[in-house]
Amino acid sequence: MRLEDFDNDEDKVIQDRLKRKTWNEIRTNDSWAIFKIMAEFVNGYESMGRIGPCVTIFGSARTKPEHEYYLLAEKIAYKISKAGYGVITGGGPGIMEAGNKGAHLGGGTSVGLNIVLPFEQHYNPYIDSDKNLNFDYFFVRKVMFVKYSQGFVVMPGGFGTLDEMFEAMTLIQTKKIAKFPIILVGSSFWTGLIDWIKTVLVEREGTVHAEDLNLFKIVDTEDEVVDVLNAFYKKYDLSPNF
């Protein structure tokens, strides 16, 4: 079928991606992509290197300001900033906005790593004006989260939140990065997933080791989040960066 024969934009995009390209087209497109990727890494490293490590808060972009998880994320970010840590979020609405808002109200560093998306994503107004970074590539952005975070606070979210959480666990599990706190907030939200991991992945299939369940903590309050962070860094003789 020809591109013009498709009725909707999604089918047209798929057809265009599957269209055979000449070697010259492939080489040209890939070469320019490499330069764009390099530019995002360089800009990210230069900007984040001046900020220093922080704590990243993940969660759904769809959570409304009146929702209990939004309000809790705001409290967590406020407490984190008052404890001396900076806060990084994905820069968008929902839980990300709550994280930046809490850091802003707490007088702490508020960083946003925004991603260009066709829907949902737009940067929120609580990011420090000089710490609002924009990315085209998810994988470059994820490197920044991991490289410059002293901990992950994972609020309830969707596929993106789960992706970021499991990538961090995998990197620690495979010793590609040093261990740092991964804190899942909201036991009622996370219990079903964790029970499935225990019963299916650990006990039935053996695809995950039981000790890997120690890679994360589940908490329900802002005070517990700060307690986990402080206990971890006291053990390893480290301190907040701000």
From TrEMBL:
Enzyme class: hydrolase
Name of the featured protein: Cytokinin riboside 5'-monophosphate phosphoribohydrolase
Gene3D superfamilies linked: 3.40.50.450
Entry GO terms, CC: cytosol
EC number(s) stated in the UniProt entry for this protein: 3.2.2.n1
An MF annotation (GO) of this entry: AMP nucleosidase activity
Catalytic activity: AMP + H2O = D-ribose 5-phosphate + adenine
Keywords: Cytokinin biosynthesis, Hydrolase
InterPro entries per record: LOG, LOG_fam, LOG_family_nucleotidases
Pfam families assigned: Lysine_decarbox
Segments traversing the membrane: none
Similarity remark: Belongs to the LOG family.
Annotated GO biological process: cytokinin biosynthetic process
